[in-house]
Design a protein that fits this description.
The relative contact order is 0.11. This protein is globular. Helix content is 24%, strand content 34%. The strands form 7 sheets. Strands 1, 5, 6, 7, 8, 9 and 10 form a 7-stranded antiparallel beta sheet that branches. It starts with 8 loop residues before the first strand and ends with a strand. With 493 residues, it is an alpha+beta fold. It contains 11 helices and 33 strands. The N terminus is likely disordered.
């Protein structure tokens, strides 16, 4: 199982054994298997004494240890110790099985039931059911609330782990749908998720492409999506790299060639610390406005592509500051079937920005609300009118379904929506006065409106501010909304 969105969303997926977190997966900016070994002539003269000491310790351990530890364990832990001494979160030692898990994760190869999940408000929502997955074949739907896994009731986000398991094993899922309890026996299976998804907003001729991972097939999938959107009449593009932890640099470089005719992808430097440009040659100009969406989990190869398109004047970056991983790894095959993943280069953007441990700062900052980031990006790409519909498990814009959700708080006749979402709909900005406990929203025309806790115009829940919708419409009458059965519909001109 892989959990790629480390906040509210979890993907029930890969190989049902390991949880792959950010430092592990984000370390995959570049994967190149290297089979040629280091020359023995060089090591024999300079390192024979060091190797002799290691062999001496190994001999003593073999002869006298009373703990029953096997020789293979000594060797493996010695290797891991050498790698960990680097104090590099991206370098690692993999057994053959661990490497396979790692490569499967980058290539979107999963075992599971095939749903995305979100635990919120003490409920586990299905936010998407993947096409062709065991969950879809069994009859699960977006919006179903999982209340039981097998005989275990769902009481926390950790219960997501109950759904994971080996291929060809069965899990029984009980959900609530329209007030009724339904039970589905589902057999876990292996499948490959697409690395690229796309949508088209016909009314404004805006294309949208999301790249989940720079897998081995990502560049080919990207070309297919790009050509399809062009055929549909796309005039601008939103490229979504949020929650993309990286992958193969070659895939990112090939995708960059569809935006830039000739230019610099990045600068790299190895142990010599000599900067070398990585060039883009014989590419093509995209020929339209481009917006890139980023967040704090945009990492590694995603940052390479973001920096290249930004610094070459191709794209505007919207969202949150990126993760900050300006390091490239290679995978070296060892004679016993295991592998070393080692950082071999660091890199800078085309304008020689070193953002390691810092991240790339967006041109337009929109934080802590995925829907607001997407709406701001679509407006920047040329969206003229917008109609948004969303619940705790769904999001659609102008009739097109996107990954995401909208949280709403209802208190009697009062209905509250996230302030950042509402601010994005009026194309404005928001400020907060802690002293006055007052939120001020300024729209695109400079109109300002204040909302206070004293007047019950705002609520603060989990460090997020919500604005009462009746009050918001009084001050911004271009907004229209209704809220029924947990679904908020809201429109702006």
């Amino acid at each position: 199982m892989i959990i790629k969105k480390l906040r509210h969303v979890a993907l029930i997926s890969l190989l049902a054994i390991s949880l792959i977190g950010l430092p592990h997966t984000a370390g995959a900016a570049s994967v190149t298997t290297v089979t040629n070994s280091i020359s023995s002539d060089t090591t024999e003269t300079n390192e024979s004494s060091d190797l002799a000491i290691i062999q001496e310790v190994l001999n003593y351990l073999n002869a006298y240890n009373i703990e029953g530890v096997e020789r293979e364990d000594f060797i493996e832990n010695a290797i891991r110790g050498m790698v960990y001494a680097l104090d590099d979160p991206y370098s690692d030692y993999y057994t053959k099985e661990e490497l396979q898990d790692f490569m499967n994760g980058m290539n979107q190869q999963y075992v599971g039931i095939g749903v995305t999940l979100r635990f919120t408000d003490e409920k586990l929502y299905i936010t998407d059911v993947l096409a062709g997955s065991p969950a879809q074949n069994a009859g699960l739907r977006q919006g179903d609330v999982i209340v039981r896994v097998g005989s275990q009731p769902v009481t926390s986000g950790e219960d997501i782990l109950l759904i994971q398991g080996e291929e060809n094993t069965e899990v029984v899922i009980t959900v609530i749908r329209s007030g009724k309890a339904l039970t589905f026996p589902i057999t876990r299976a292996s499948f490959v998720l697409p690395s690229v998804t796309s949508h088209f907003i016909d009314s404004s001729k805006i294309g949208y492409i999301a790249i989940a991972s720079f897998s081995e097939s990502a560049d080919k999938e990207f070309v297919t999506a790009l050509n399809s959107l062009r055929t549909a009449g796309m005039r601008s593009l939103v490229l979504d790299l949020r929650d993309n932890l990286g992958g193969y640099v070659d895939a990112a470089a090939k995708i960059a060639k569809h935006f830039i005719k000739d230019g610099i992808l990045m600068y790299t430097a190895d142990q010599s610390n000599q900067l070398e440009p990585v060039l883009i040659k014989d590419g093509e100009d995209i020929g339209m406005p481009v917006v890139i969406l980023t967040n704090e989990l945009t990492a590694s190869a995603s940052e390479i592509l973001t920096g290249a398109l930004r610094d070459n004047g191709v794209a505007t970056v919207i969202g949150a500051q990126t993760y900050g991983k300006a390091r490239i790894q290679n995978v070296f095959s060892l004679s016993n079937g295991s592998s070393l993943k080692l950082t071999v280069e660091h890199y800078l953007t085309p304008k020689k920005e070193d953002f390691n441990h810092i991240g790339l700062k967006p041109d337009i900052e929109v934080t802590n609300n995925d829907a607001a980031q997407l709406i701001t990006g679509l407006y920047k790409a040329g969206l003229r009118q917008i109609e948004v519909s969303g619940s705790r498990s769904s999001l659609s814009i102008n009739g097109v379904s996107f990954s995401g959700y909208i949280d709403v708080i209802q208190n009697g006749s009062k209905v509250y929506a996230p302030s950042r979402l509402l601010t994005s709909l009026v194309r404005g900005n928001v400020t907060w006065s802690k002293e006055n406990q007052k939120l001020t929203v300024t729209d695109i025309n400079g109109v300002k409106a204040g909302f206070t806790k004293a007047a019950s115009s705002i609520k603060i829940v989990n460090n997020e501010t919500y604005v009462e919708l009746h009050d918001f419409r009084k001050k911004f009458p271009t907004i229209k909304w209704d809220y029924q059965q947990g679904v908020l519909n809201i429109a702006a001109k």
